[in-house]
Design a protein that fits this description.
Length: 547
């Protein structure tokens, strides 16, 4: 408890040094940390920096887990102001490596064999190091070059402690911050916990990579390295080593004669194929995780790395988000409003004409510019932000999709600034939807379901007869489940707990009043002692009930 208090105080001091007072002033337990402004060693000239920059620097000083938290937080553009979200997206996940000998020991312990029998060569010096794991170059006995990703020793304990602390801070923010109920900081921490524990599981990351590889096995657009399952365990991942040029090294791509326009258009297509064709998309596609195979400069191919975070949508959300995209492409704002209501993202009683007007207000000004200057990703984000006025409810997977769309579009414009996103995305999405929801695909889906329907068919008449009998007897029962009912139940439970106390208090007050009125002895200073005791007990019970 003392250690947690000291760590919380350190967080508060760092935030105060970077003049992030708005995060402290609403949290009474941390206000004392503002005294750090008085010490001469505080950060110089931080007051002139934008608030997003100050927050990013503070997270980097706090350590790798907080950097990772900031990265995840940057995806929640539905909750953060744009300037803070943009700055947090710049957080770099780079930390000093742990000793290579420890990595060897972890590999041997996880794979249950000596390192020399597992690899012909294992480089003790790591190639790269991040907050969760570090990567070592190695060679398999058959001569194949691989990379071995090893989870940091003791990282689970550190993550567990930091998550407890972040949870405590989230509860404080929820309680004291004026917008705590809207921001829901505890839910953000829970989302972060889910993401970071997924990244700890190398088996899960390997499975993500294998499925993505299978989806693009015959593709010339994207290459996914092969996973070596014989050399993979919970905390160790062995993957084919790939070369290529970092996608951000545009000068080198130009030097090698890569067709940058074709490469940019290919990246947009890959995104729509992952999301709408396969319903499995790489959700961490920042430039550090993308390389370019320039073996054939006229037909350069993307190479994806780091598969700790992937996203998928429910079939319902996948359909409605695709239809929304197509409606925006076609400037059909009424259809956008109808889809939001049909999908259940906004309440059913939302006025379509009002939401249509809001969508038109957001989208239409963009079409006054040439399409190559219009950011479709920003349009989608702005549309969701406006829809929040209509009590928009969006699942975390849709937020991940927004973030990935922003990354992909930004990467495409870096490669070829004049790219027309609409010209690439609209026909690709229309083609995928024709195939996914066309007659042939639907017929095949129905064909797969027919055996299950036939196996259940003999039971249907019996169910119908039972339902008719219950209806005739007035015995239909409905089971309702909702958050509102849970709140009502909790309120009734609280009320019921207080009812006995209220009855007892009322009884004591009446009895004490009667004893006082009829001078029931013994007496103290001419006051009835039994009556005084009764009044005291009734006051005590009432005080406890109000706590």
């Amino acid at each position: 408890m003392i250690r947690r208090g000291l760590r919380m105080l350190r967080i508060a001091v760092v935030l105060a040094r970077y003049r992030l007072d708005e995060l402290l002033v609403e949290l009474p337990p941390l206000r004392i940390a503002r005294a750090v402004r008085l010490v001469p060693w505080g950060r110089r000239r931080v007051r002139e920096l934008p608030r997003g920059r100050r927050l990013r620097l503070a997270l980097e000083e706090l350590g790798p887990i907080y950097v990772k938290f900031g990265q995840i937080l940057s995806t929640r553009r539905d909750l953060l102001p744009p300037d803070i979200a943009d700055e947090l997206a710049e957080l770099q996940d780079a930390v000093p490596p742990f000793p290579g000998e420890e990595a060897r020991a972890i590999v041997e312990q996880q794979l249950k064999a000596p390192i020399d029998s597992l690899f012909a060569r294992f480089d003790v010096e790591p190639m790269a190091s991040a907050s969760i794991a570090q990567v070592h170059a190695a060679e398999l006995p058959d001569g194949e070059q691989v990379v071995v990703k090893v989870v940091r020793p003791g990282i689970e304990d550190r993550i567990r402690d930091d998550l407890e602390l972040l949870g405590a801070l989230a509860r404080l923010a929820r309680r004291y911050h004026p917008e705590g109920d809207r921001i829901r900081p505890n839910e953000i921490v829970e989302e972060f916990e889910r993401f970071i524990y997924d990244e700890l599981d190398m088996q899960r990351e390997g499975a993500n990579a294998s499925l993505l590889r299978r989806n693009f096995e015959d593709s010339d657009d994207l290459y996914i390295p092969r996973i070596h399952w014989s050399h993979t365990a919970d905390h160790v991942l062995t993957m084919e080593r790939v070369g290529g040029v970092p996608v951000r090294d545009i000068d080198e791509l130009r030097r090698q004669g890569v067709d940058l326009e074709k490469l940019a258009r290919r990246g947009i297509r890959v995104f729509y194929q992952q999301v709408f064709r396969d319903n499995l998309f790489h959700a961490d596609m920042h430039p550090g995780n993308i390389r370019i195979d320039t073996t054939d400069p006229d037909n350069a191919t993307y190479i994806a790395l780091d598969f700790g975070i992937v996203g998928s949508l429910t079939p319902k959300d996948l359909y409605y988000i695709g239809e929304n995209f197509l409606a925006i492409f076609n400037r059909d704002y009424r259809r956008v409003a109808e889809l939001h209501i049909e999908a259940g993202w906004v309440p059913a009683d939302t006025r379509i004409d009002e939401m249509e007007a809001a969508a038109r207000t957001v989208c239409e000004p963009s079409f006054t510019r040439p399409l190559e200057e219009v950011s479709f990703a920003e349009l989608v984000v702005n549309l969701f932000n406006v829809a929040r006025r209509f009590k928009l409810t969006v699942q975390p997977q849709l937020i991940m999709l927004q973030k990935t769309l922003l990354n992909i579009e930004g990467m495409g414009r870096d490669l070829y600034p004049k790219i027309n996103i609409w010209d690439v995305a609209k026909p690709e999405l229309e083609r995928i939807f024709r195939e996914r929801y066309g007659i042939k695909r639907t017929a095949r889906r129905i064909g797969r379901e027919i055996p299950a329907w036939l196996s259940s068919a003999p039971e249907v008449p019996g169910f119908a007869l039972d339902a008719l009998k219950h209806a005739a007897r007035g015995q239909f029962r409905a089971r309702l489940e909702s958050e509102d009912l849970e709140k009502i139940a909790a309120s009734l439970k609280t009320h019921n707990r207080g009812t006995p106390g209220a009855v007892l208090t009322a009884g004591l007050l009446i009895a004490s009043s009667v004893m006082a009125a009829f001078d029931v002895g013994p007496f103290l200073s001419e006051h009835s002692v039994p009556a005084m005791i009764g009044f005291a007990f009734s006051a005590l019970i009432a005080w406890r009930a109000m706590r």
